[in-house]
Each structure stands twice: as structure tokens, then as C-alpha cells.
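ENTRY TYPE: protein
WANTED: fold as C-alpha cells:
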Amino acid sequence: MNQYQDINTVVNRRQLLMQAGAGFGGIALNAMLAQQAEAAAKTKPKKPTQSFSPLSAKQTHFPATAKSVIFLFMEGGPSHIDMFDPKPALQKLAGKPLPDSFEKPITAMGEINAPLLASKRKWKQHGEAGTWVSDWLPNIATCVDDIAVVRGCWTNGINHAGGVCQMNTCIPLAGRPSLGSWVTYGLGTENESLPAFVVIQDNNGTVVNGPRNWGTAFIPAVYQGTRLNTGKEPISNLYRPDDVFVTQESGKLDLLAKLNERHAASRKQQSELDARIESYELAFRMQAAAPEAVDLTQETQATREMYGMDEKETQVYGTNCLLARRLVERGVRFVQLYNGAGSKWDSHSGIEKRHSALCRGMDKCVAGLLKDLKQRGLLDSTLVVWGGEFGRTPMSEKGDGRDHNPTGFTMFMAGGGVKGGQTIGGTDELGLYAVEDRMHVKDIHTSIYHLLGLSNMKLEYRHKGSPERPTLNEGEFMEKLVTG
């Protein structure tokens, strides 16, 4: 008797029970099924076909200081010289061309001879170390003793497509796995009932390059990021219809897994098939774990206010930041929160208006996240990374804007073993080139891996017979992040 005859037999028995004895048999059957469903709901569903999950937690290469990462990605390129890197010389030379002593840069829009644009920001030193922060970020300024400001960053991507791609994959061209997918591949997750790698945007716009930023390229697709929705329902189709029992759904998934595995057996090079099978199983497990994880009504009013969730300008990103805290709290390994999705930070003109609005919508949320993680004892194990794909030029564009600047910009890190209250590296007197303790994107990624206990040279995946490593055999760990 094959599996389809088994199904028919079950159906015939149910029909018999429903019809016999004026339906009293059906009442008993329904009671039994309800009991089974209740019992199943209280237990963790077993994976129907796999005894080992590719997302199971793995050993680190050496002791880690961080267990998870929250990457706050300001898409479009925030201006470092208006936020974290004050330049008195820029104020003095405003209106004049770039001095001849400077190497002429290559800019996206080609306005290398445009006059220098002064920053209109007011600057103040904060914290015990006296970290400089502009008046655009009054809330983040209160957290500087937990922050390492990294001023000497640089990259190769001169436009948004290349810059965003490189900040996510280490090269400005498509074809490499993302940072989050490498981390997930190397470490797995501590909660297999939630996605290991989560991506959330702050609007319905499209991040440059789209899903490629959280894709896996040649490593198995199961390690790719899962994008959650912006708004009241972060996960679509999460809840099981009321008229479908857990046991019914489990049975369907068992059958579907068998059919998928049979289909995938002759297509072993297509890891997308394994990822699809895993996604069905994860979706089933998420029905028990995810509703609680994304239920922000459990948070206190004080917490909501800390993140700015009840204010119009900060509601969306504050909600995303709070959701990120709840996810890492439950074992999610890597969370990436895009701010200004659709290159909103790209201020070729009107930088005062654009950046002012974006900072108001982000500053309180980020500070709330840092403070909340710290008060809950999570900052020690959670690495928070803030930054964009590049910075902005000291030269003006269109009179009141700034062009892309990949040769020198600022990011910051906090938590996860990072020593706060310090500034690492620096740019020249105008903020154009990184000149001190320079950190290329490969160094930034290497440092993130290192804090997670992963060696960028030992973490590898065999692709077409060759060992592929996340930073292409380059990159150095910035020891000052932990030593000061």
C-alpha cells in the first residue's frame, strides 16, 4: 500500500466515523485531534527529514567577545564632517577650492573644483574621553563612553551600487556572499525557531542592489538573510488558519519535504532547493516562537519612549531598533537595520535639510538601542555597528550639498568587547582622505569576524575546488577596538 492509498484509507475511516452513530464517532475523533493539536503546540516541532540543521550553533575559532551583531546601515552616505569629524580648517577655507597640496580625488559627480563647503554644525566634546559629536546627534552623544568612533574608514566603491555592495560583501562588484551570511555560515544560530540573519528596512523603498546585499552568492542559500516587513506585521502569513490543526500542517510539511528532497536529489548543486526546504520547516517552527518575539506590546511605556516609538519622526526606526534588541535577545545572530533605504542619506544638494531630518529620525532610536542593550546586560555580547557605504566630500556640490567620499569617512562600533570612549584613526585637515589608522572595508569586516571569534582566514567555503574566504585573504583586525 503506497502513501496515497494510506491517505485515502484515513479519509474513508473519517467519513465512516462521521456518518456512523449519528456522528458521535466524529465528535470523539474531533476531540482526539484537538488534544493532539494542543500537545503539538506545546512542544517544539521535530524537523521531518533532517537530523542536523546547517544553522546549528558552531564552535568559534577562538574565544569571542561578541555573540551577535546589529548593523545600523545609513544608506546613501552620511556626512562624517558634519557628525563625528570636525574640521576647523574647513571653516577657514570655506568658499575656496581644494588646496593644490591635496591629491585631486575622483568624485561621482566630477565637481572636484567646486569650493569647499563649511559645516554649519555646532560641536561639543562629550563623555569622559571628550569625544567630539555635532549637535545633529544629541542623544548618541550621551552614549559615547560606550562607543569607539572609527574615523579612518575608506572603501573603493565610488557610487552607491559599488559602495553598498562593498560594505556588505567586501568588493564593489556582485558575486560575493554578504557579511551576515558569512557570519551565519560560520556560527549558525542559537535559536533555530527564528531566522539566523534578519534584514529590516525603514521604508518600502529599495536598498541599492536589493536582496544581493544579504544574499549568499556561492555559499548555500540557507545562510541568506530574511527580510522582515516594515510596519505592524513584520512577518507576513505567520499565523496558521484557525481551521487547520498543527498535526495537519505538520503532515503536509512532511509530505512536501519528501517531494522536495526527491526533486533535489538529482540537483545537488542547487542549494536554493535545500534553502527552500529549510524555509518551510523554519516557517513551521516560527509559528510558535515568532509571534512572541515580534510582540512589542510586551514592552513598557518607558521602553517605548526610550526608542521614540510614540513620536512621528522616530516611530519607524525606533520600532525597528527595539525589534532588533528583541531578536538578538532570543538568539538571532545577525540583524541589519537599514536607515534611509533608497539612498535617502545621499545629499548632493540641500544637505542641511536632508541630514537634519534623517538625524532626527535616527539619533534617539540608536541611543535608545545602546542604552537598552546596556541596561539589560546585552551590550557586552552584542556588537553594534553604525555607518554607511561612504562619507561625503568637503567640497560643495550644487552650492549646498556634498558629493560621495569613499576615501575617508566615519563609522562607530559599540559593545561586543569594543572599548568605548575612544576615537580611532582620522582623516586629513579637511576630511577628504583617511590618513591615520586607516581601515578599509576588509579591515572592518575582519574586525567584526574577530570579535565574533572567527578568523577571516580560517572561515572558508570550497567553491569549484578553491577555498573562498570572506575578505579575500586580506584584512587586519584593529586591535585598538579592544585595547584602546
Summary: The chain has twelve helices and 17 strands. The two ends are 70 Å apart (CA to CA). The chain has one domain: 66-231+298-479.
